[in-house]
Amino acid sequence: MKHGISQRKLGRMPAHRIALLRNLVSALLHHETIKTTLPKAKEAARMAEKIITLGKKGTNPAKSKAMAYLMPPHNSPTPSSSASSSSTFDPETFVAPKSLLPKLFNHLSARYVDRPGGYTRIHKFGRRQGDNAPHAIVTLVDGPRDLKLEMLARTVGKEGLDLIELKGNLDEISNDWEGLRDKTKQQVEKVLKYKNQDEIKEFKSKAKEFADYLQAEESAYGGIRKPNIDSEIPKYRRPGLTTPKSGKILRAGERLSGVSTHTTGLGLARGALVRTPRGKLSIDKTPRFWGQARLPEGVSAEIA
């Protein structure tokens, strides 16, 4: 009979496994993001969900269970240290608190008061060099180190760059997330579901900041250097090698900011230029600055 298979064994004895998970969960609640192997990440995220649920209850039995499970946070001061009397995290001296209970039952419980679950998020992060073990990054959602929120803000800035150039303001085009792909819209609605207006405004400012960065890079390079050839001009009158040119020279396999990996060395090695996605006959994978990208379908190039 299959008894005692409620969790992964992780190749360790019971006492070692429990201590490992306690350490991972405590580190996750303290740093709000950790990197470990994928099996450990799944088990640590599962236990962190239960501990945060205890923090939302706020009862004395919940405090007793959380106190019995959590370990002192990393880099905690020694009892003989003069800074050991500090009970809160000091960003200037980076002295960690002795206990995670104040953060769990005050800060995290207030952050997730409206969220029914799903307090953690796992991102696959390649494989570890040496034993090729799958790596993963575990983060607490809606926190200052929410990786998906940062990357999604950049995606919104990239996809909405042409609309920003037309309308001049990200707030005007982001009320209904106009011009974004359907998949990006779903991700944005999912991430901002439990955000207040100030946090949504901060998300838009991050997207606008990255869009400004892409525009500044394009203007700094002067665009991509390409020959300006008119088909009506005879070949013997076309500009030659001695004609002055301006702009950035695009090297083979070079990746510009925001450009996909299809034209990079990794994309070429994978044969991404040869493969055609299902349901699409042809895709233009020419590398370009985002200011030269095509507008989404259904969006007019005229200023509204």
From TrEMBL:
GO BP, sorted A to Z: translation
Cite a GO CC annotation.
mitochondrial large ribosomal subunit
PROSITE patterns, per the entry? RIBOSOMAL_L17
Question: Sorted alphabetically, which keywords does the UniProt record give?
Answer: Ribonucleoprotein, Ribosomal protein
InterPro entries for this protein:
Ribosomal_bL17, Ribosomal_bL17_CS, Ribosomal_bL17_sf
Q: Which domain of life is it from?
A: Eukaryota
Q: Output the Pfam families linked to this UniProt entry.
A: Ribosomal_L17 (PF01196)
A GO molecular-function descriptor: structural constituent of ribosome
Q: Give the family per the record.
A: Belongs to the bacterial ribosomal protein bL17 family.
Q: What is this protein called?
A: Ribosomal protein L17
